[in-house]
Design brief:
The protein has about 550 residues and is mainly alpha-helical. Among the domains are: about 150 residues, Response regulator (Rossmann fold, 3-Layer(aba) Sandwich); about 100 residues, no CATH class. Helices cover about 65% and strands about 5% of the residues. The protein has a five-stranded parallel β-sheet with strand order 2-1-3-4-5, with helices on both faces. Strand 3, helix 5 and strand 4 form a beta-alpha-beta unit. Helix 10 runs parallel beside helix 12, helix 14 packs antiparallel against helix 15 and helix 26 runs antiparallel to helix 27.
Protein backbone atom coordinates (compact mmCIF):
# COMPACT_ATOMS: atom_id res chain seq x y z
CA UNK A 1 0.00 0.00 0.00
CA UNK A 2 1.16 3.52 -0.74
CA UNK A 3 1.19 5.92 2.20
CA UNK A 4 -1.71 8.36 2.30
CA UNK A 5 -1.20 12.12 2.21
CA UNK A 6 -1.75 12.22 5.96
CA UNK A 7 0.84 9.51 6.58
CA UNK A 8 3.46 11.28 4.49
CA UNK A 9 2.78 14.77 5.85
CA UNK A 10 5.39 14.58 8.61
CA UNK A 11 7.99 14.00 5.91
CA UNK A 12 7.50 17.55 4.68
CA UNK A 13 8.92 18.78 7.97
CA UNK A 14 12.20 16.94 7.37
CA UNK A 15 13.84 20.23 6.48
CA UNK A 16 17.31 18.77 6.09
CA UNK A 17 16.27 16.78 2.99
CA UNK A 18 14.35 19.69 1.51
CA UNK A 19 17.20 22.14 2.04
CA UNK A 20 19.78 19.70 0.66
CA UNK A 21 17.92 19.28 -2.64
CA UNK A 22 15.95 22.50 -2.75
CA UNK A 23 18.66 24.41 -4.58
CA UNK A 24 18.77 21.87 -7.38
CA UNK A 25 14.99 21.46 -7.78
CA UNK A 26 13.73 24.98 -7.07
CA UNK A 27 12.42 26.47 -10.30
CA UNK A 28 12.61 23.23 -12.29
CA UNK A 29 9.36 22.31 -14.04
CA UNK A 30 8.13 18.91 -12.92
CA UNK A 31 5.32 16.83 -14.45
CA UNK A 32 3.82 13.88 -12.56
CA UNK A 33 1.71 11.47 -14.67
CA UNK A 34 -0.40 8.95 -12.75
CA UNK A 35 -3.99 7.86 -13.36
CA UNK A 36 -5.03 7.40 -9.70
CA UNK A 37 -5.74 10.64 -7.85
CA UNK A 38 -4.58 9.45 -4.43
CA UNK A 39 -1.29 8.10 -5.76
CA UNK A 40 -0.82 11.22 -7.89
CA UNK A 41 -1.16 13.45 -4.82
CA UNK A 42 1.20 11.21 -2.87
CA UNK A 43 3.83 11.47 -5.65
CA UNK A 44 3.39 15.24 -5.64
CA UNK A 45 4.01 15.29 -1.90
CA UNK A 46 7.24 13.34 -2.33
CA UNK A 47 8.47 15.92 -4.84
CA UNK A 48 7.51 18.79 -2.53
CA UNK A 49 9.39 17.18 0.35
CA UNK A 50 12.68 17.28 -1.55
CA UNK A 51 12.28 20.88 -2.66
CA UNK A 52 10.33 20.96 -5.95
CA UNK A 53 8.18 24.09 -6.29
CA UNK A 54 6.75 23.95 -9.81
CA UNK A 55 4.74 20.73 -10.13
CA UNK A 56 2.10 19.91 -12.76
CA UNK A 57 0.03 16.75 -12.93
CA UNK A 58 -1.49 14.60 -15.69
CA UNK A 59 -4.04 11.82 -15.22
CA UNK A 60 -3.59 10.07 -18.57
CA UNK A 61 -1.44 9.84 -21.70
CA UNK A 62 -3.40 12.46 -23.64
CA UNK A 63 -2.96 15.02 -20.88
CA UNK A 64 0.76 14.26 -20.63
CA UNK A 65 1.27 14.70 -24.38
CA UNK A 66 -0.77 17.92 -24.50
CA UNK A 67 1.12 19.46 -21.59
CA UNK A 68 4.54 18.34 -22.85
CA UNK A 69 3.89 20.02 -26.19
CA UNK A 70 3.20 23.29 -24.39
CA UNK A 71 5.75 23.27 -21.57
CA UNK A 72 9.39 22.08 -21.82
CA UNK A 73 9.42 20.11 -18.56
CA UNK A 74 12.75 19.53 -16.85
CA UNK A 75 11.57 16.39 -15.05
CA UNK A 76 8.80 13.91 -15.93
CA UNK A 77 7.86 11.14 -13.50
CA UNK A 78 5.45 8.80 -15.25
CA UNK A 79 3.68 5.71 -13.97
CA UNK A 80 4.48 2.63 -16.05
CA UNK A 81 0.77 1.69 -16.33
CA UNK A 82 -0.50 5.19 -17.02
CA UNK A 83 -3.69 4.20 -18.83
CA UNK A 84 -5.14 1.52 -21.09
CA UNK A 85 -3.97 3.23 -24.30
CA UNK A 86 -0.25 3.76 -23.69
CA UNK A 87 2.14 2.79 -20.93
CA UNK A 88 5.09 4.85 -19.76
CA UNK A 89 7.53 3.11 -22.09
CA UNK A 90 5.34 3.80 -25.12
CA UNK A 91 4.96 7.43 -24.09
CA UNK A 92 8.70 7.87 -23.77
CA UNK A 93 9.11 6.38 -27.26
CA UNK A 94 6.55 8.83 -28.63
CA UNK A 95 8.02 11.82 -26.80
CA UNK A 96 11.54 11.11 -28.05
CA UNK A 97 10.47 10.08 -31.57
CA UNK A 98 8.40 13.24 -32.04
CA UNK A 99 11.11 15.43 -30.40
CA UNK A 100 8.56 16.73 -27.90
CA UNK A 101 10.65 16.13 -24.77
CA UNK A 102 14.07 17.84 -24.88
CA UNK A 103 17.10 15.55 -24.56
CA UNK A 104 18.22 17.50 -21.51
CA UNK A 105 14.97 16.61 -19.67
CA UNK A 106 14.87 13.78 -17.12
CA UNK A 107 12.27 11.03 -17.64
CA UNK A 108 11.75 8.59 -14.76
CA UNK A 109 9.26 5.73 -14.75
CA UNK A 110 7.53 4.80 -11.48
CA UNK A 111 6.28 1.25 -11.19
CA UNK A 112 5.23 -1.35 -8.65
CA UNK A 113 6.87 -4.12 -10.72
CA UNK A 114 9.98 -5.44 -8.97
CA UNK A 115 11.36 -6.89 -12.23
CA UNK A 116 11.19 -3.59 -14.11
CA UNK A 117 14.98 -3.36 -14.24
CA UNK A 118 14.90 -6.13 -16.87
CA UNK A 119 12.50 -4.03 -18.96
CA UNK A 120 14.82 -1.03 -18.73
CA UNK A 121 17.84 -3.11 -19.73
CA UNK A 122 16.05 -4.31 -22.86
CA UNK A 123 14.50 -0.98 -23.87
CA UNK A 124 15.99 1.14 -26.63
CA UNK A 125 13.98 4.17 -25.49
CA UNK A 126 15.25 3.70 -21.94
CA UNK A 127 14.17 6.13 -19.20
CA UNK A 128 16.85 7.99 -17.29
CA UNK A 129 15.92 5.94 -14.24
CA UNK A 130 13.05 4.10 -12.59
CA UNK A 131 11.51 4.02 -9.12
CA UNK A 132 9.82 1.08 -7.44
CA UNK A 133 6.69 2.20 -5.60
CA UNK A 134 6.32 2.90 -2.78
CA UNK A 135 9.53 4.90 -2.60
CA UNK A 136 10.83 7.30 0.02
CA UNK A 137 11.78 10.94 -0.50
CA UNK A 138 15.40 9.90 0.09
CA UNK A 139 15.24 7.36 -2.75
CA UNK A 140 13.59 9.90 -5.05
CA UNK A 141 16.21 12.52 -4.18
CA UNK A 142 19.11 10.16 -4.91
CA UNK A 143 17.69 9.11 -8.30
CA UNK A 144 16.91 12.65 -9.37
CA UNK A 145 20.27 13.97 -8.20
CA UNK A 146 22.05 11.31 -10.24
CA UNK A 147 20.04 11.98 -13.40
CA UNK A 148 20.19 15.77 -13.12
CA UNK A 149 23.97 15.73 -12.65
CA UNK A 150 24.43 13.75 -15.87
CA UNK A 151 22.01 15.98 -17.80
CA UNK A 152 23.82 19.07 -16.56
CA UNK A 153 27.23 17.69 -17.57
CA UNK A 154 25.95 16.86 -21.09
CA UNK A 155 23.58 19.81 -21.54
CA UNK A 156 25.67 21.55 -24.24
CA UNK A 157 25.99 18.28 -26.15
CA UNK A 158 22.20 17.87 -26.07
CA UNK A 159 21.65 21.48 -27.15
CA UNK A 160 23.73 20.89 -30.31
CA UNK A 161 22.04 17.56 -31.04
CA UNK A 162 18.61 19.20 -30.75
CA UNK A 163 19.47 21.43 -33.74
CA UNK A 164 21.34 18.64 -35.55
CA UNK A 165 24.71 20.42 -35.30
CA UNK A 166 26.90 17.31 -35.20
CA UNK A 167 30.19 19.20 -35.55
CA UNK A 168 29.44 21.36 -32.53
CA UNK A 169 28.30 18.26 -30.62
CA UNK A 170 31.75 16.73 -31.19
CA UNK A 171 33.41 19.73 -29.58
CA UNK A 172 30.99 19.61 -26.65
CA UNK A 173 31.74 15.91 -26.16
CA UNK A 174 35.47 16.66 -26.03
CA UNK A 175 34.77 19.30 -23.38
CA UNK A 176 32.90 16.73 -21.27
CA UNK A 177 35.78 14.27 -21.62
CA UNK A 178 38.21 16.88 -20.24
CA UNK A 179 36.05 18.46 -17.53
CA UNK A 180 33.81 15.63 -16.27
CA UNK A 181 35.45 12.25 -17.03
CA UNK A 182 32.78 10.61 -14.87
CA UNK A 183 30.52 10.79 -17.93
CA UNK A 184 33.22 9.79 -20.42
CA UNK A 185 31.34 6.75 -21.72
CA UNK A 186 28.22 8.82 -22.42
CA UNK A 187 30.30 11.45 -24.22
CA UNK A 188 32.22 8.86 -26.24
CA UNK A 189 29.03 7.14 -27.31
CA UNK A 190 27.48 10.37 -28.56
CA UNK A 191 30.75 11.40 -30.21
CA UNK A 192 31.02 8.12 -32.12
CA UNK A 193 27.39 8.32 -33.27
CA UNK A 194 27.93 11.91 -34.45
CA UNK A 195 31.04 10.86 -36.38
CA UNK A 196 29.06 8.14 -38.13
CA UNK A 197 26.35 10.67 -39.02
CA UNK A 198 29.04 12.93 -40.51
CA UNK A 199 30.47 10.03 -42.54
CA UNK A 200 33.70 9.86 -40.53
CA UNK A 201 33.34 6.13 -40.01
CA UNK A 202 36.99 5.27 -39.42
CA UNK A 203 37.24 7.79 -36.56
CA UNK A 204 34.09 6.35 -35.00
CA UNK A 205 35.48 2.83 -35.39
CA UNK A 206 38.63 3.86 -33.49
CA UNK A 207 36.50 5.08 -30.56
CA UNK A 208 34.47 1.89 -30.44
CA UNK A 209 37.62 -0.25 -30.65
CA UNK A 210 39.29 1.67 -27.80
CA UNK A 211 36.25 1.09 -25.55
CA UNK A 212 35.91 -2.59 -26.47
CA UNK A 213 39.60 -3.21 -25.74
CA UNK A 214 39.24 -2.11 -22.10
CA UNK A 215 35.62 -2.77 -21.11
CA UNK A 216 32.79 -5.18 -21.83
CA UNK A 217 30.35 -2.64 -23.24
CA UNK A 218 27.77 -4.17 -25.63
CA UNK A 219 26.81 -0.91 -27.35
CA UNK A 220 30.46 -0.22 -28.23
CA UNK A 221 30.80 -3.64 -29.84
CA UNK A 222 27.63 -3.06 -31.81
CA UNK A 223 28.92 0.33 -32.89
CA UNK A 224 32.15 -1.28 -34.03
CA UNK A 225 30.20 -3.89 -36.02
CA UNK A 226 28.17 -1.10 -37.61
CA UNK A 227 31.32 0.71 -38.72
CA UNK A 228 32.60 -2.54 -40.25
CA UNK A 229 29.39 -2.72 -42.24
CA UNK A 230 29.72 0.92 -43.33
CA UNK A 231 33.21 0.07 -44.58
CA UNK A 232 31.68 -2.80 -46.62
CA UNK A 233 33.36 -5.48 -44.48
CA UNK A 234 30.10 -7.42 -44.45
CA UNK A 235 31.35 -10.83 -43.31
CA UNK A 236 33.32 -9.35 -40.41
CA UNK A 237 30.34 -7.21 -39.43
CA UNK A 238 27.99 -10.19 -39.46
CA UNK A 239 30.39 -12.34 -37.41
CA UNK A 240 30.88 -9.65 -34.76
CA UNK A 241 27.15 -8.94 -34.54
CA UNK A 242 26.28 -12.62 -34.21
CA UNK A 243 28.87 -13.10 -31.44
CA UNK A 244 27.48 -10.10 -29.60
CA UNK A 245 23.96 -11.50 -29.90
CA UNK A 246 25.07 -14.86 -28.52
CA UNK A 247 26.81 -13.25 -25.54
CA UNK A 248 24.14 -10.64 -24.76
CA UNK A 249 20.78 -12.09 -25.89
CA UNK A 250 18.84 -9.35 -24.03
CA UNK A 251 20.67 -6.50 -25.78
CA UNK A 252 17.79 -5.40 -27.95
CA UNK A 253 19.45 -3.19 -30.57
CA UNK A 254 21.63 -5.99 -31.90
CA UNK A 255 18.53 -7.79 -33.21
CA UNK A 256 17.69 -4.75 -35.36
CA UNK A 257 21.20 -4.73 -36.78
CA UNK A 258 21.13 -8.45 -37.55
CA UNK A 259 17.74 -8.00 -39.20
CA UNK A 260 19.12 -5.23 -41.41
CA UNK A 261 22.05 -7.41 -42.46
CA UNK A 262 19.79 -10.35 -43.32
CA UNK A 263 17.42 -8.03 -45.19
CA UNK A 264 20.26 -6.61 -47.28
CA UNK A 265 21.33 -10.17 -48.07
CA UNK A 266 17.78 -10.94 -49.25
CA UNK A 267 17.05 -13.37 -46.40
CA UNK A 268 13.72 -11.91 -45.33
CA UNK A 269 12.81 -14.91 -43.18
CA UNK A 270 15.82 -14.49 -40.89
CA UNK A 271 15.32 -10.72 -40.83
CA UNK A 272 11.74 -11.12 -39.57
CA UNK A 273 12.84 -13.74 -37.07
CA UNK A 274 15.36 -11.31 -35.53
CA UNK A 275 12.82 -8.51 -35.29
CA UNK A 276 10.17 -10.74 -33.75
CA UNK A 277 12.62 -12.09 -31.18
CA UNK A 278 13.39 -8.49 -30.20
CA UNK A 279 9.68 -7.78 -29.80
CA UNK A 280 9.24 -10.71 -27.41
CA UNK A 281 12.04 -9.49 -25.13
CA UNK A 282 10.51 -6.11 -24.29
CA UNK A 283 7.13 -5.71 -22.62
CA UNK A 284 6.44 -2.76 -24.89
CA UNK A 285 7.27 -3.37 -28.55
CA UNK A 286 8.90 -0.56 -30.48
CA UNK A 287 6.44 0.85 -33.03
CA UNK A 288 9.08 1.40 -35.70
CA UNK A 289 10.24 -2.19 -35.28
CA UNK A 290 6.69 -3.42 -35.88
CA UNK A 291 6.53 -1.28 -39.00
CA UNK A 292 9.81 -2.81 -40.14
CA UNK A 293 8.40 -6.32 -39.63
CA UNK A 294 5.46 -5.39 -41.86
CA UNK A 295 7.86 -3.85 -44.37
CA UNK A 296 9.95 -7.01 -44.67
CA UNK A 297 6.88 -9.28 -44.60
CA UNK A 298 5.51 -7.45 -47.62
CA UNK A 299 8.79 -7.87 -49.48
CA UNK A 300 8.69 -11.58 -48.59
CA UNK A 301 5.10 -11.89 -49.83
CA UNK A 302 3.79 -12.84 -46.38
CA UNK A 303 0.49 -11.00 -46.52
CA UNK A 304 -1.05 -12.50 -43.35
CA UNK A 305 2.00 -11.31 -41.40
CA UNK A 306 1.64 -7.83 -42.93
CA UNK A 307 -2.00 -7.69 -41.82
CA UNK A 308 -1.47 -8.99 -38.28
CA UNK A 309 1.51 -6.70 -37.69
CA UNK A 310 -0.08 -3.54 -39.08
CA UNK A 311 -3.20 -4.19 -37.02
CA UNK A 312 -0.95 -3.98 -33.96
CA UNK A 313 0.62 -0.78 -35.26
CA UNK A 314 -2.75 0.83 -35.95
CA UNK A 315 -4.03 -0.14 -32.52
CA UNK A 316 -0.86 1.12 -30.85
CA UNK A 317 -0.74 4.49 -32.61
CA UNK A 318 -4.45 5.31 -32.53
CA UNK A 319 -5.04 8.83 -31.18
CA UNK A 320 -1.30 9.41 -30.87
CA UNK A 321 1.19 11.60 -32.71
CA UNK A 322 2.84 8.44 -34.09
CA UNK A 323 -0.19 7.61 -36.26
CA UNK A 324 0.75 7.29 -39.93
CA UNK A 325 -1.62 7.28 -42.88
CA UNK A 326 0.73 4.87 -44.68
CA UNK A 327 -0.01 2.13 -42.13
CA UNK A 328 -3.74 2.37 -42.83
CA UNK A 329 -3.24 2.39 -46.61
CA UNK A 330 -1.04 -0.71 -46.60
CA UNK A 331 -3.41 -2.51 -44.23
CA UNK A 332 -6.43 -1.58 -46.37
CA UNK A 333 -4.81 -2.84 -49.57
CA UNK A 334 -3.53 -6.03 -47.93
CA UNK A 335 -7.01 -6.84 -46.58
CA UNK A 336 -8.53 -6.24 -50.02
CA UNK A 337 -5.95 -8.54 -51.61
CA UNK A 338 -7.11 -11.21 -49.15
CA UNK A 339 -10.73 -10.42 -50.15
CA UNK A 340 -11.53 -9.25 -46.61
CA UNK A 341 -13.55 -6.33 -47.91
CA UNK A 342 -15.58 -5.61 -44.75
CA UNK A 343 -12.41 -5.34 -42.65
CA UNK A 344 -10.78 -3.12 -45.26
CA UNK A 345 -13.84 -0.85 -45.22
CA UNK A 346 -13.62 -0.47 -41.43
CA UNK A 347 -9.91 0.41 -41.64
CA UNK A 348 -10.57 3.02 -44.34
CA UNK A 349 -13.44 4.50 -42.33
CA UNK A 350 -11.29 4.64 -39.21
CA UNK A 351 -8.54 6.41 -41.15
CA UNK A 352 -10.94 9.15 -42.17
CA UNK A 353 -11.85 9.73 -38.51
CA UNK A 354 -8.45 9.29 -36.85
CA UNK A 355 -6.35 11.23 -39.37
CA UNK A 356 -8.60 14.23 -39.95
CA UNK A 357 -6.10 16.59 -38.26
CA UNK A 358 -2.99 15.17 -39.95
CA UNK A 359 -1.33 16.93 -42.87
CA UNK A 360 -1.70 14.92 -46.10
CA UNK A 361 -4.49 12.86 -44.53
CA UNK A 362 -7.06 14.02 -47.10
CA UNK A 363 -5.08 12.49 -49.97
CA UNK A 364 -4.60 9.27 -47.99
CA UNK A 365 -8.25 8.94 -47.00
CA UNK A 366 -9.41 9.39 -50.59
CA UNK A 367 -6.87 6.81 -51.82
CA UNK A 368 -8.21 4.35 -49.21
CA UNK A 369 -11.78 5.12 -50.28
CA UNK A 370 -10.87 4.50 -53.95
CA UNK A 371 -9.34 1.15 -52.99
CA UNK A 372 -12.43 0.06 -51.05
CA UNK A 373 -14.88 1.09 -53.78
CA UNK A 374 -12.79 -0.84 -56.31
CA UNK A 375 -12.73 -3.83 -53.96
CA UNK A 376 -16.54 -3.72 -53.88
CA UNK A 377 -16.75 -3.45 -57.65
CA UNK A 378 -18.02 0.14 -57.46
CA UNK A 379 -15.75 1.42 -60.22
CA UNK A 380 -17.55 4.72 -60.88
CA UNK A 381 -17.32 5.69 -57.18
CA UNK A 382 -13.67 4.56 -57.12
CA UNK A 383 -12.89 6.72 -60.15
CA UNK A 384 -14.50 9.78 -58.53
CA UNK A 385 -12.33 9.29 -55.43
CA UNK A 386 -9.26 8.87 -57.62
CA UNK A 387 -10.02 12.09 -59.52
CA UNK A 388 -10.28 13.88 -56.18
CA UNK A 389 -6.95 12.36 -55.12
CA UNK A 390 -5.13 13.74 -58.16
CA UNK A 391 -6.83 17.13 -57.83
CA UNK A 392 -5.48 17.35 -54.27
CA UNK A 393 -2.10 16.03 -55.39
CA UNK A 394 -1.78 18.51 -58.27
CA UNK A 395 -2.52 21.31 -55.82
CA UNK A 396 0.20 20.21 -53.37
CA UNK A 397 2.37 17.23 -54.43
CA UNK A 398 4.53 17.51 -51.29
CA UNK A 399 1.64 16.30 -49.12
CA UNK A 400 1.78 12.80 -50.62
CA UNK A 401 4.20 10.37 -48.97
CA UNK A 402 6.13 7.83 -51.05
CA UNK A 403 3.68 5.11 -50.03
CA UNK A 404 0.72 7.27 -51.07
CA UNK A 405 2.38 7.88 -54.44
CA UNK A 406 2.80 4.14 -55.04
CA UNK A 407 -0.84 3.47 -54.09
CA UNK A 408 -1.99 6.36 -56.32
CA UNK A 409 0.04 4.97 -59.23
CA UNK A 410 -1.41 1.51 -58.83
CA UNK A 411 -4.97 2.79 -58.59
CA UNK A 412 -4.39 5.03 -61.62
CA UNK A 413 -3.02 2.08 -63.62
CA UNK A 414 -6.01 -0.08 -62.69
CA UNK A 415 -8.31 2.66 -63.98
CA UNK A 416 -6.36 3.11 -67.22
CA UNK A 417 -4.85 6.45 -66.16
CA UNK A 418 -1.55 5.43 -67.72
CA UNK A 419 0.05 8.87 -68.01
CA UNK A 420 -0.48 9.68 -64.35
CA UNK A 421 0.72 6.23 -63.30
CA UNK A 422 3.84 6.44 -65.46
CA UNK A 423 4.82 9.89 -64.17
CA UNK A 424 4.44 8.88 -60.53
CA UNK A 425 6.33 5.61 -60.99
CA UNK A 426 9.16 7.27 -62.89
CA UNK A 427 9.67 9.85 -60.15
CA UNK A 428 9.62 7.12 -57.50
CA UNK A 429 11.94 4.72 -59.30
CA UNK A 430 14.93 7.09 -59.25
CA UNK A 431 14.85 7.63 -55.49
CA UNK A 432 17.74 5.94 -53.71
CA UNK A 433 16.42 5.74 -50.14
CA UNK A 434 13.12 3.88 -50.26
CA UNK A 435 11.81 1.40 -47.67
CA UNK A 436 11.87 -2.28 -48.60
CA UNK A 437 8.08 -2.31 -48.71
CA UNK A 438 7.98 0.36 -51.44
CA UNK A 439 10.89 -1.10 -53.38
CA UNK A 440 9.19 -4.48 -53.49
CA UNK A 441 5.95 -2.87 -54.71
CA UNK A 442 7.74 -0.99 -57.47
CA UNK A 443 9.55 -4.14 -58.49
CA UNK A 444 6.54 -6.45 -58.45
CA UNK A 445 4.01 -4.08 -59.99
CA UNK A 446 6.11 -1.63 -61.96
CA UNK A 447 9.50 -3.29 -62.40
CA UNK A 448 10.22 -2.97 -66.11
CA UNK A 449 12.87 -4.56 -68.26
CA UNK A 450 13.40 -5.89 -71.78
CA UNK A 451 11.01 -8.73 -71.04
CA UNK A 452 8.32 -6.49 -69.58
CA UNK A 453 5.83 -7.36 -72.27
CA UNK A 454 6.29 -11.11 -71.95
CA UNK A 455 3.82 -13.32 -70.21
CA UNK A 456 4.38 -14.15 -66.56
CA UNK A 457 6.39 -17.38 -66.46
CA UNK A 458 4.16 -18.78 -63.69
CA UNK A 459 0.88 -17.89 -65.30
CA UNK A 460 -0.89 -17.84 -68.62
CA UNK A 461 -2.15 -14.33 -67.90
CA UNK A 462 -0.24 -11.18 -68.71
CA UNK A 463 1.33 -9.64 -65.58
CA UNK A 464 0.13 -6.18 -64.46
CA UNK A 465 3.51 -4.62 -65.12
CA UNK A 466 3.53 -5.98 -68.67
CA UNK A 467 0.10 -4.48 -69.29
CA UNK A 468 1.21 -1.12 -67.91
CA UNK A 469 4.42 -1.21 -69.96
CA UNK A 470 2.37 -1.71 -73.11
CA UNK A 471 0.07 1.15 -72.12
CA UNK A 472 3.02 3.48 -71.54
CA UNK A 473 4.54 2.65 -74.93
CA UNK A 474 1.19 3.09 -76.65
CA UNK A 475 0.56 6.46 -74.98
CA UNK A 476 4.07 7.63 -75.91
CA UNK A 477 3.64 6.51 -79.53
CA UNK A 478 0.26 8.20 -79.85
CA UNK A 479 1.68 11.43 -78.43
CA UNK A 480 4.54 11.48 -80.97
CA UNK A 481 2.20 10.65 -83.86
CA UNK A 482 -0.03 13.56 -82.80
CA UNK A 483 3.04 15.80 -82.63
CA UNK A 484 4.02 14.91 -86.21
CA UNK A 485 0.60 16.02 -87.42
CA UNK A 486 0.06 19.06 -85.16
CA UNK A 487 3.46 20.45 -84.18
CA UNK A 488 3.63 23.04 -81.39
CA UNK A 489 6.04 23.68 -78.55
CA UNK A 490 3.31 22.87 -76.02
CA UNK A 491 2.56 19.47 -77.57
CA UNK A 492 6.30 18.82 -77.97
CA UNK A 493 6.86 19.51 -74.24
CA UNK A 494 4.16 16.98 -73.30
CA UNK A 495 5.69 14.40 -75.64
CA UNK A 496 9.12 14.93 -74.07
CA UNK A 497 7.67 14.33 -70.60
CA UNK A 498 6.31 10.98 -71.78
CA UNK A 499 9.67 10.11 -73.34
CA UNK A 500 11.41 10.91 -70.02
CA UNK A 501 8.99 8.70 -68.06
CA UNK A 502 9.32 5.83 -70.51
CA UNK A 503 13.12 6.02 -70.63
CA UNK A 504 13.31 6.17 -66.81
CA UNK A 505 11.24 3.01 -66.51
CA UNK A 506 12.38 1.09 -69.60
CA UNK A 507 15.82 2.42 -70.64
CA UNK A 508 16.70 -0.69 -72.66
CA UNK A 509 13.39 -1.11 -74.45
CA UNK A 510 13.93 -0.75 -78.22
CA UNK A 511 10.52 0.84 -78.65
CA UNK A 512 11.52 3.65 -76.31
CA UNK A 513 14.82 4.23 -78.13
CA UNK A 514 13.01 4.25 -81.48
CA UNK A 515 10.49 6.76 -80.10
CA UNK A 516 13.35 9.14 -79.25
CA UNK A 517 14.71 8.80 -82.78
CA UNK A 518 11.30 9.52 -84.26
CA UNK A 519 10.77 12.53 -81.98
CA UNK A 520 14.08 14.05 -83.08
CA UNK A 521 13.33 13.59 -86.76
CA UNK A 522 9.99 15.39 -86.24
CA UNK A 523 11.69 18.15 -84.23
CA UNK A 524 14.29 18.71 -86.96
CA UNK A 525 11.56 18.88 -89.59
CA UNK A 526 9.80 21.63 -87.62
CA UNK A 527 13.00 23.46 -86.56
CA UNK A 528 12.46 22.30 -82.98
CA UNK A 529 14.95 21.27 -80.30
CA UNK A 530 16.25 17.70 -80.33
CA UNK A 531 15.82 15.58 -77.19
CA UNK A 532 18.41 13.16 -75.78
CA UNK A 533 17.27 10.10 -73.76
CA UNK A 534 16.84 11.51 -70.25
CA UNK A 535 15.71 10.01 -66.93
CA UNK A 536 13.87 11.66 -64.07
CA UNK A 537 17.17 11.74 -62.18
CA UNK A 538 18.71 13.88 -64.91
CA UNK A 539 15.79 16.31 -64.84
Amino acid sequence: MLPSQKDSEPLSRRSGLAVKNGGALAGLRVLIAEQHFTVRMWMREQMSVIGATSISMAANASELMRMARTIPFDIVICDHHLDEKRDGQQLLEELRFQHILPLRSVFIIATAERKYNHVVAAAEFAPDDYLIKPYTPEQLAVRLDRSLRKKKALRHVFDHLEVNDQEAALGACDHVLKRTPRYALDALRIKAESLVTLGRVEEASAIYESIVSTRAVPWARMGYAMTLQRQKKFNEAMDETQRLNDEYPDFISVYDMLAKMHEQAGDYGKAMECLERASTITSSSNTERLRKIADIAEAAGDRPKVISTLKRVVERTRKSSMLKVDDYLTLTRSLLEEERVDEATKVADELRVEARNIQSAEIGTEVAAAMVHRGKGQMAEAKRCLDKVFALFDRNPAEATDMMAVEMAEEAALHGEVERAATLIAKMSVKSALPTRIKSRLDSWFGFGNDAARRDSKSETVSPKAVLAEQIVQSMSESIAHLDEYWSEEIAAKAREKLIDAFTLMPRDKRVINAHIRYNSIAVKHDGTRHSPTTRTDT
